[in-house]
Amino acid sequence: MHLRATETTLTGVAGLVGFGVFLRELDVDAELQRTFGRLKPDSRVVFPMAAQMRLLIDAAVAGEARVFGLEAPANDPLFVHLAGGVVPSIDRVYRDLRRFDDKALAALDSMLAEHGLAPLAKAPPDIIHLDVDTTVEPLFGSQEGARPGPNPRYHGRPSYHPRLVRVAETNTVIGAQLRPGDTNFGNDDVPDVERCLDRVRAAAPEAAVYVRIDAAGDCTQLLRAIADKRAFFLTKPRLTRDLAGAISLVTRWKTVDWDADGRPRRQVAEVLFRRGEWADLAARVIAVRTLDRTHARPIYLWGDLDYPVQVYLTN
Predict the structure, then answer these.
(1) Burial class (CB in 10 A: 0-12, 13-18, 19+), 21
(2) What's residue 303's pLDDT?
(3) At what angle do helices 190-203 and 102-122 cross, to 10 degrees?
(4) 3-state class of 128 per DSSP?
(5) CA pair distance 314, 171, nearest whole angstrom
(6) What CA–CA distance (Å, rounded) separates 20 from 29?
(7) Count of Cβ atoms closer than 10 Å to residue 127 Cβ
(8) Longest pairwise C-alpha distance within the chain
(9) What single-letter DSSP state applies at residue 64?
(10) Rounded to an integer, what distance in angstroms lies between the CA atom of residue 97 and that of residue 39?
(11) Which end of the chain is more exposed for a tag (fewer CB within 10 A), N or C?
(12) What topology does CATH give the domain 122-232?
């Protein structure tokens, strides 16, 4: 064991070699140069835009999701070698990222979708589930675009509210948008969801498509757009007082699961309920009550029954 100031034969990111071969086979490096080389057109630049993007991809694979995290792998000899011998400064990377215009962002989104849909084009399944999901990313600085919004853990902190569209069968993302923290999910997201549905239809025209959204999906314009694209939707409606009352009055429940003693453990029922804004929307309200404690915030509607209930809206 020799003690040295720096050790050039040890690395914590050896997997980046195989990952780089994988990307090379997919022609990602050349595609980055073709698509984003115009952002730094001078042939004399030290850090071309394609190289900067590959640097960030490698950093993300190595576990550093932020630009600021480049400081950690910058001391790793293999990471430095794959970066071309020199890891650029954080300020340099931030300045290059500011070069992205609307055209470049659209091209990046298209590139993401192309790779995300590639497995579907090779072997289209009969059923495709699209998961549309948003999440809160709290921040502890003054990053561009970060604004205070709904934040269940860090109240009042600025955050981002990104939205992702994922194909469940292949576990690949085909649409993504980084949004300020005060941006809600709703009518403004309709064009992006429609674009993702069109992409899936082009890749697998014969498949049945199901769009799954959490409670934020209770947006009539969005659900109508999904139905118009010949797709099914599944979301959780807002459990308003009138809907809760309609569920509590249901008398016919179908048992679909029993416990070891033969008692009903899970029951379902279709609720004859229509909210005013659903006037021309073909939708069904399905209630599921179960004895399993699978939800952090159970909702009880019956005083004499220990059944928490979950409600779903679908076409």
Answers:
(1) exposed
(2) 65
(3) 40
(4) strand
(5) 23
(6) 9
(7) 12
(8) 77
(9) -
(10) 10
(11) N
(12) Nucleotidyltransferase; domain 5 (3.30.420)
